[in-house]
Amino acid sequence: MSEKEIILEVRNLKTHFFTNMGLIKAVDGSSFSLRKGQTLGIVGESGSGKSITSLSILGLVPKPAGKIVEGEILYCGEDLVKKSQQEMREFRGKKIFMISQDPMTSLNPVFNIGNQLGEAVRRRQNLNGRNLKEKCIEILKQVQIRSAETRINAFPHELSGGMKQRLMISMALACRPEILIADEPTTALDVTIQAQILQLMMEIREKYKTSIILITHDLGVIARFCDYVLVMYAGKIVEKADIKTLFKRNRHPYTKGLLNSLPHLGEKQHRLMSIKGQPPDLLNLPAGCPFEPRCDYAVEKCSFEYPSDESVGKGHQVSCWRWREI
Ligand SMILES: Nc1ncnc2c1ncn2[C@@H]1O[C@H](COP(=O)(O)OP(=O)(O)O)[C@@H](O)[C@H]1O
Ligand SMILES: [Mg+2]
């Protein structure tokens, strides 16, 4: 892929939670960039900091415990971390849009579909009355919501999970964001619907050259849709690479473990391997590499010194003392 213009650049982002139990470094020094029209995947086990990374970009870090304590999030050169809540609210409606695992976190249960979609359309286009309604119906049809003319009067809770997610995608279409963040958008859906939802997102990408951040724990989804991937473990990006390199020449034992747990075509679910050991406790992280207790390649140094980021190829970085051996 040619080097396209960078639309979002995250530099040394640290988002921490100050809880009664102690300090949780949910995102701890992440740096990455998103290019125009690119689909960037973020993968990692549950609790590794994927959602907090996206909420940091959106200016929606859970308060009061969570805080961006360091770093920059540059959108076309402007630092989003420095923006006010009001500025971020406008930014979210126009430039960046999130589809989450649970659409009900974004949908308002007391407004019908027409109201909510209409609101999203009006932020972009000066339409009212019948014209607005017709535009909404057109968009609902684009995301294959059947009987759009009547469904427009329905309330979110009257829709199935797949339909709610289609509605979110229709709102994304209305918003025409430059960046679409999809945080496990299909986790709650069955496989067929999942494929349709992802397909719709990719149509948005083709049509509007939208940049997408796609968060998932499903490497199969990553393989099909992403250009570039960040692998997260315990709040840190442990490997980043373009999609080909990630699958063919990965250098982090954790990435390797994730790939091994991917079921091969035709294999039954029970042969799925999972990474041995427990995910790390973010309240009690070791001084060294947090993957060390689960790592087959670990040597003594790994237990007391966190590995620095090594550039191991073009656009390929890894944090592992043993990358040469992997
Ligand atoms: N509201 C919160 N309060 C305290 N800690 C939180 C909160 N949300 C997330 N965390 C911490 O941040 C870590 C990363 O969370 P998250 O980004 O949601 O993980 P995931 O990779 O599953 O999306 C969690 O393991 C948790 O310890
Ligand atoms: Mg999450």
Q: Would you give an account of this structure?
A:
Helix 7 links the parallel strand 7 (179-183) and strand 8. The two termini are 26 Å apart. The chain has helices spanning 50-58, 85-94, 113-124, 129-142, 148-151, 161-175, 191-208, 219-225, 243-248, 253-260; strands at residues 6-19, 22-35, 39-43, 66-75, 78-79, 96-99, 179-183, 211-215, 228-233, 236-242, 310-313, 316-318. The chain has two domains: 6-95 and 177-325, Rossmann fold (3-Layer(aba) Sandwich), CATH 3.40.50.300; 106-176. The mean pLDDT is 92. Helices cover 32% and strands 24% of the residues. The strands form two sheets. It has an eight-stranded mixed sheet with strand order 6-7-8-3-9-10-12-11, with helices on both faces. The structure holds adenosine-5'-diphosphate (ADP) and magnesium ion.
